[in-house]
Design a protein that fits this description.
Number of domains: 3
CATH superfamily of the largest domain: HUPs
CATH topology of the largest domain: Rossmann fold
Structural class: alpha/beta
Number of strands: 20
Radius of gyration: 26 Å
Distance between the termini: 47 Å
Shape: globular
Helix content: 25-40%
Bound molecules: xanthosine-5'-monophosphate
Number of helices: 15
Strand content: 15-25%
CATH class of the largest domain: Alpha Beta
Length: 525
């Protein structure tokens, strides 16, 4: 097992390590993740991490991230000039490059012809850093400043029609720079550039595995928690399950899990959680049956935001009561991921727009006086999935489509009742079963049934029916911010429709949602 180097969660010095010095760019964490994709451990650190500490950590390479400032502005974040004498390979990205250049005596100016967004870039000199790249490629620029003069320090490796120094290399040291962002998907071969820096320039072998990350988290949780008890709220989803599994590995019987059954769950959800966290991981699992309380409070409510508010409030009440009944708990664990940190606007430079109040337990730790444990805070979803598999969670859980906190509450349009929720639950289970058996579940990022608050006329046998309608929604998306409706094969639609109408009492019509996001959202409410 690896030993964590310090309480900041910085890595052990046995691992190959790349540090990203954070100058406030929105994609700084993404750089770290792209490096980890190369099986090299990489972590984002403050841009002013003392040079002594950097030396101790023995990184194989340093990356200076982008950032919103201009290097010539007063109060722009700077870098210790001694960094460039450490003999550690350095890659400056955008602001990081401009800073490196300025620190070494060059000049940066507000580029006369600003380049933003996609632009074409040509290779002008050969270098190991450019291994495997085509002569010309599309790259993503997002800064107005450019290098005007490198004081003879750097030579150009790539250029665009308006930027002579799109990629540069120091004349005598392993210091590289990119004016564009290799970490974003709009830059073609960006991953290759980062891989080249890490492997060709820094000489990393790529032996790091997600299991090292688990080991580090386990060690740091043990050190922090000591003999105390930790509460983990389970939602049935992958993030909270991975958190619980890590905690169980770290502290075993000191972990108590709370799962609130709000009556708005999908078919079989509660049993699955029991099976996983009582039988497989033998945690102290508290399943709170709060179905009646939720449905009572939601009676007669049809407004979506009102539903969300009530569900959130009741959840906090129920969770709080259960948590208070658990003796000696000092910590509350949450499955916050890095994209959630951005979405909630918690990082200073991230896009501040908060999308929806997604997190049910938001505000709870403070109210209850808990200290927060967030082992996934630096990670992206696919890394969490890899961790989940490594921890022994099933493929089915790890690849589960996202399910909103308010659950079927926002998919059962109109008034909520036991009868209507049962209809929806049955129809939803059929949709998912059919997608799985057609091998489509993993190709679709989110799919579900929605019960509409309208009735339509039908005929069944000799009789006329007047029953409710199920809409089927299935979307393909990269990030859930935009989404396309999934072009579902007709035979699958046919099986779903036939089964729902035959098997779900009270439904006589099935429709398929062919709206993209935007303008429609993924959920109907
Ligand atoms: P929309 O409907 O905004 O959904 O296109 C984008 C993603 O967010 C999920 N979603 C929620 N998740 N609480 C949640 O935890 C919510 O209130 C909520 N509303 C939407 C939705 O399922 C989709 O994955």
């Amino acid at each position: 097992m690896t030993v964590p180097a310090d309480s900041n969660g910085l890595p052990s010095i046995q691992e190959e390590l790349i540090l990203v010095l954070d100058f406030g760019g929105q994609t700084a964490q993404l750089i770290a993740r792209r490096v980890r994709d190369q099986n090299v451990f990489c972590q984002l650190v403050r841009h002013d991490l003392p040079i002594e500490r950097i030396r101790e950590l023995k990184p194989k390479g340093l990356i200076l991230s982008g950032g919103p400032a201009s290097v010539y502005e007063k109060n722009a974040p700077h870098v210790d000039a001694r960094l460039f004498d450490l003999g550690i390979p350095i890659l400056g990205i955008c602001y990081g490059l401009q800073l490196a250049c300025q620190t070494l005596g060059g000049r940066v100016t507000p580029g006369s012809k600003r380049e933003f967004g996609r632009t074409q870039c040509q290779i002008v000199a050969a270098d190991p850093f450019l291994t495997g790249l085509p002569a010309s490629m599309t790259v993503w620029m997002s800064h107005g400043d450019q290098i005007e003069d490198t004081a003879g320090m750097f030579t150009s490796l790539m250029s665009t029609s308006t930027c002579a120094f799109a990629a540069v290399k120091h004349r005598s040291q392993a210091i590289y720079g990119l004016q564009f962002h290799p970490e974003v998907t709009h830059t073609e071969h960006g991953g290759q550039l980062l891989a080249n820096f890490v492997k060709e320039v820094c000489g990393c072998h790529g032996t790091w595995k997600i299991s090292s990350l688990i080991d580090r988290e386990v060690a740091s949780i043990r050190a922090r928690v000591g003999a105390n008890r930790v509460i983990c709220g389970l939602s049935g989803g992958v993030d909270s399950s991975v958190v619980a599994a890590i905690l169980y590995k770290a502290i075993g019987s000191q972990l108590s899990c709370i799962f609130v059954d709000n009556g708005l769950l999908r078919k079989g959800e509660s049993d699955k959680v029991r099976d996983r966290f009582e039988n497989h991981f033998k945690t102290d699992l508290h399943v709170v049956d709060a179905k009646k309380q939720f449905l009572d409070e939601l009676a007669g409510v049809t407004d979506p935001q009102q539903k969300r508010k009530i569900i959130g409030r009741v959840f906090i009440d129920v969770f709080r009561k259960e948590a208070e009944s658990i003796q000696d708990a000092k910590f509350l664990a949450q499955g916050t991921l890095y994209p959630d940190v951005i979405e909630s606007g918690a990082n200073i430079d991230g896009p501040a727009a908060t999308i929806k109040a997604h997190h049910n337990v938001g505000g709870l730790p403070e109210q209850l006086g808990f200290e927060l444990i967030e082992p996934l805070r630096d990670l992206f979803k696919d890394e969490v999935r890899r961790m989940g598999l490594e921890l022994g969670l099933t493929e089915e859980l790890v690849w589960r489509h996202p399910f909103p906190g308010p659950g079927l509450g926002v998919r059962c349009l109109g008034e909520l009742s036991d009868v209507r929720l049962t209809k929806l639950r049955e129809a939803d289970a059929i949709v998912l079963e059919e997608l799985r058996s057609a091998g489509l579940y993993r190709l679709i990022q989110q799919a579900f049934a929605v019960l509409l608050p309208v009735q339509s006329v039908g005929v069944m046998g000799d009789g006329r029916t007047y029953e409710e309608v199920i809409a089927v929604r299935a979307v393909a998306t990269d990030d859930f911010m935009t989404a396309d409706w999934y072009p579902m094969p007709h035979d699958v639609l046919q099986r779903i429709s036939t089964r729902i109408i035959n098997e779900v009492r009270g439904v006589n019509r099935v429709v398929y949602d062919i709206s993209s996001k935007p303008p429609s959202t993924i959920e109907w409410e």
